[in-house]
Amino acid sequence: MKFTFIYAVLACYSLLSIAGLSACTHHPIHLPICAPLLINDNTETGNYWLSQAFISGQCLYVQLSHGGGCAEHSYELSWGGGLAESMPPQAFLVLRHIDPGDPCDAIIETSQFFDLTPLIDETYDQIIVHVTGWETPLMLED
To answer: Which domains does the chain have, with CATH numbers?
Structure first.
């Protein structure tokens, strides 16, 4: 049974690497799939409530909620591609809620993980990360 679990984990990592996805190996709860960080300057955001945000390893974890319940909602995290000139440098990220026009009014809670490796610059040991909807700056450490 133990070997079956180990083979399943190895198969999962193999599939993730083939698909070009990464796993957050530093999160204490489990090993989720991190969604990619989109590099663009799309500043449009939908309605959502961000209740928690932190960085674990090289992944951003966010816990959020939105209205709906009748259709599949999704989230994207985007970055303009540059770092603000400060010490340590700063990255400003936009969390975007993609609402498919869901007419329902239930409050849906979800959590998302986003891959922050595109932010890493070998010149800096730390990068301050700002996320729309979250007042407290977060620290990404190399």
So the answer is: 24-141 (2.60.40.2370)
